[in-house]
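chain below, 161 aa
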Amino acid sequence: MSKTQIVAAPGKQEIVMTRDFDAPRELVYRVLTDPELRPQWWGPSYLTTTVETMDVREGGTWRFIQRDPEGNEFAFRGVYHVVDAPSQVVETFEFEGLPERHVVLETANLVEHDGVTTLTQTSVFQSVADRDGMVASGMEKGALESMERAAELLASLHVNS
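prediction:
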C-alpha cells in the first residue's frame, strides 16, 4: 500500500491528496461516510472528534467538533453536493473558527483495481492565498495522520468482514 501523496502546486488554488488503501471501494466509501466510523480516523489522534450531524445525501449537511486535551473546541461544517456511492462525494468544508468565510470545495473520488482502492481528494480554495494559508497552518501533518488512521481502521474492518 502506498503512502499518502499531497500536492499543492505553486500558484494553484487546489490541494490534491492521493492514497491507496488495501480494501474494496465499498468499504473505503463506508469509512468516509459512516458517522460511527468517521471519529475513529478523522483528524490527529490527540483530538477527539464528535459527529454532530452527518446527513450523507445531496443537500445534506455535516458538522464535526474536535476537542483537544485541554477542552478547546474546533468545529467544521459543510454541505454535500454530490453523493454517488461508492465512487464519489463532493462537499464543502468550512472551519468555523475563522472570522471570514473560507469555504473549500472537496471532491473525493474512489477507484478500485484488484482490491486496492485509490482515494483522490481534490480541495479547491477560493483563492491561492486561502490555499497557501491552509498549507501554512500545518494541514499536511493532520491529513497524513488522518490517512494513516483510516488505513489502520480499514485494515481492521477488512480482516473482520
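Residues 5-160 form a domain with the Alpha-D-Glucose-1,6-Bisphosphate; Chain A, domain 4 fold (CATH 3.30.530.20). The longest strand covers residues 73-84.
thats it, cya
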